[in-house]
Design goal:
The structure is a single chain. The chain is mainly α. Helix 2 crosses helix 10 and helix 13 runs antiparallel to helix 18. It is 82% helix and 0% strand. The chain folds into two domains: 429 residues, no CATH class; 67 residues, no CATH class. The radius of gyration is 24 Å and the shape is globular.
């Protein structure tokens, strides 16, 4: 046994040495535990994303089959408009919390900052809701094609502050890495929304009642979140509030507003342009294709939820090597799963639309193929921008998103009158491709980003086998479609293992994460 105070950096190191435990082994174990916690957080965060995606897929056939493309188009315009208003009215304070409320923080600071943020956001949303109510007839005519839909704008004014407050609560949970609690809350809310839509749609064809049920679920969620956070976490502090740190949050968040608005333009403005040059029914048809292509988001969303706080923490602790290793694994498996999703959607585009909607939506088949490629590039774009966020490259991201927004909007205005829905899909794909290339090059100047050539060969072989199997399997019915998807997944997974794309280190790490998630984690280190 050896005890050295002179060479030890701190008392913990002295204790380890006195107990005969090699310091390097403990540091390796700490790094392993950090990786497990990171991947486990992604696992928990994936649950609400899966439920949200399932909700979208289940709501889609309910509205499209029972109510037609026009009603589904109104549903889409409602949600797209809510997203637009939340882009600037929340002041990006939730994003700021993910940057500044990570790590060890005094509880008194947490509750003071959270209360100040909620007060500020809720006040802004109430003011905007009043403006919406006063201009409801004009907005209804612009958004939905008729003033008789003014009541929908009124629902929008009510829904907005509820949704904004809930978003801030969830951002706080993510910043504090309370991903298990956030997952359970989101799953409960998603299930309630799905049940509400299903029950209402079976009894009436009025979109007003469906949207009202959504607002009701949002209100209940806000009440439950408030009770949980304040009475479970901040029982003795819940009436404290301070605006002392708000300038710091605003300094980080407000410059991101142009980027957030540009993000909305790139992702959602095409619905407005389609509605202007075509009609609300075409908006519904395009939205079905966009929703299906966005299935890739179920894989990406949980990663992004955990990635920024985790990478920021590593960067602040100057563990850049671990940051790069962790990011490389995320990038590797995103490309694997994302490319498989893209190929699968391209092969199954027509039967997929036919099964989950009505014949009038078949016109979205070709746009779906292009959009599936677009969302693959979008995923890479989002991953690389997380690295830029870590570097606090706010100005660069704002310029990038603004340029992409102008490009996308201009391309939509030019191509949609000429090519119809395909014009919107091509514009989106072009914007996401450029975004992925530029953000990747920018991030590589500060971090070492690598993707081995042999991985591309292994992916190519695996994707080829999967595409052949899926193409020849029967997929004209719902059961056949599920069988083709499941069969393709099995073949692809086996091919990745056989070709060596999934190595033993990744396998052991995945096993430890699953065991840890169920409270049975062992102690094998994975480098």
């Amino acid at each position: 046994m050896r005890l050295e105070f002179g060479n030890a950096k701190n008392m913990n190191e002295c204790k380890l040495q006195s107990e005969g435990i090699p310091l390097r082994n403990q540091l390796v174990s700490d790094k392993s535990d950090s990786r497990i916690r990171f991947v486990r957080d992604i696992l928990y965060s994936s649950l609400p994303s899966i439920f949200n995606t399932l909700k979208g897929f289940l709501i889609l056939p309910i509205l499209s089959k029972l109510m037609g493309s026009a009603t589904y188009g109104i549903w889409v315009q409602f949600n797209v408009s809510i997203m637009l208003m939340l882009c600037f009215t929340t002041l990006n304070l939730g994003h700021s919390m993910s940057r500044f409320l990570v790590g060890s923080q005094p509880k008194i600071r947490l509750v003071k900052d959270l209360n100040a943020i909620l007060f500020l956001v809720f006040s802004v949303e109430i003011a905007l809701g009043g403006i919406l109510f006063l201009s409801r007839h004009a907005l209804a005519n612009f958004l939905f094609g008729s003033e008789r839909h003014a009541v929908i704008v009124t629902i929008m004014a009510t829904y907005l502050p509820l949704s904004a407050v809930n978003n801030e609560f969830m951002a706080f949970l993510r910043a504090r890495r309370m991903n298990r609690q956030g997952a359970l809350i989101t799953i409960g809310k998603t299930t309630a929304q799905l049940l509400a839509v299903s029950l209402v749609a079976l009894h009436t064809s009025e979109i007003v009642f469906i949207l009202s049920s959504f607002a009701g679920v949002e209100l209940i969620t806000m009440i439950l979140l408030s009770l949980y956070i304040y009475f479970s976490l901040f029982r003795q502090y819940h009436f404290k509030m301070s605006f002392e740190n708000i300038p710091t949050y605003l300094k980080f968040g407000i410059p991101l507003i142009p980027m957030t608005l540009a993000h909305w333009v790139v992702q959602s403005s095409d619905r407005y342009v389609i509605g202007y040059f075509m009609n609300v029914s075409q908006v519904g048809i395009y939205a079905v294709a966009y929703t299906l292509a966005g299935a890739l988001g179920v894989l990406l969303s949980p990663v992004l939820t955990v990635l920024l706080p985790d990478l920021s923490d590593l960067y602040e602790r100057k563990q850049v090597g671990e940051l790069e290793t962790r990011f490389q694994r995320i990038q590797k498996y995103y490309v694997a799963i994302g490319s498989a999703t893209t190929v699968g959607l391209a092969v199954l585009a027509r039967p997929l639309i036919k099964v989950i909607s009505s014949p009038e939506f078949i016109a979205g088949t070709q746009p779906l193929i292009i959009l599936s490629v677009a969302f693959f590039f979008y995923g890479l774009f989002m991953l690389y921008t997380q690295l830029l966020n870590v570097l606090k490259a706010v100005r660069l991201m704002s310029f990038l998103w603004t340029g992409l927004a102008l490009l996308n909007l201009g391309a939509n205005i030019i191509l949609i009158p000429i090519m119809g829905l395909m014009g919107a899909a091509v514009s989106t794909c072009l914007a996401f491709l450029i975004g992925a290339v530029v953000s990747g090059i920018s991030a590589s100047r500060s971090f070492h980003l690598s993707f081995h050539p042999k991985w591309l060969a292994q992916l190519g072989v695996s994707l080829g086998f999967m595409a052949i199997i899926v193409h020849f399997l029967p997929h004209q019915s719902f059961a056949g479609l599920l069988f083709a998807i499941f069969g393709g997944m099995v073949v692809y997974g086996m091919s990745l293992k056989v070709t060596g794309f999934v190595d033993s280190k990744d396998y052991r790490l995945g096993k430890r994460v699953l065991l840890s998630a169920f409270g049975k984690c062992g102690g094998v280190y994975v480098n």
